[in-house]
Hints:
Blueprint: E1 3-5, H1 8-30, H2 32-38, H3 46-63, H4 70-83, H5 85-93, H6 103-124, E2 130-132
Helix pairs in contact: 1-2, 1-3, 1-6, 3-4, 4-6, 5-6
Amino acid sequence: MFTLPSxxxxxxxxxxxxxxxxxxxxxxFLNPGFYLRIMPTWLPAHRELVALSGALEILGGLGVFVAPxxxxxxxxxxxxxxxxxxxxxxMALNPELFPELPQGALWARLPLQGVLIIWAxxxxxxxxxxxxx
Length: 133
């Protein structure tokens, strides 16, 4: 069931995307304190939302490798990226909470969300003949 698109650039983008989200999701469980600081104060259940977003990142990352659900996984990752945008905005607007990070990096995360959304859409969109791997 594990297949890759026949296009090498798209296959590479898909593999890197999946591994990136699996690693990012795992990091929510390995370093929850960082993600708790990201949470805007107006959101409830910070610990639960950090765990949920981490689990969804892992599931989405795994899902992009499974051809029958790849497109759904891509849309799920896109929705997740949109959902976590307020946390990235919170980081940029509150740099004092993240003294270990350059302020420019906090602002760079905002357009990076757009790049990740386009990447997830492009790598997981239907079409093209898959090659088994």
